[in-house]
Task: structure prediction
Amino acid sequence: SIRESILMFPLLEGGHLLGISVSAGTIAISDLRMMGLIFKKESASDVFHQLIPWITAGFLMMIVTGTLLLWSEPVKCYNSIWFRLKVLFLFLAGLNVLIFHSSKIYRSMHEWEWSADPPRAAKLAGWISLISWGIVIIAGRTTAYNF
Result:
């Protein structure tokens, strides 16, 4: 019924795009701060704490609408190499967050959060996140228009 509805599929897709925009956009801000490229006069933990509600809300919206979109076209998604690539890099982005937040570099953030040059591990986690989310977005848009 989602796929055949005149309004439901476009509303879900729009909600999915909004969710990923909010989530990936705020994640990009936190990644850039973690790499020491923006908001250098703000502590990294302050930036993260202000962005976490937005990241979470966008991510939840993206997951709920994405699950419903997948449910409406499971065979198309299953057969799409782009969808598989999207899921792989979504998993990699999640693994990156898990590793970063359970690592010493996160637990010792109070030591480097004001530094003009954050530790290499923080920069690496930021780059992995930015690249992963970029591929998730590109592969997701390709999935939507690849028949």
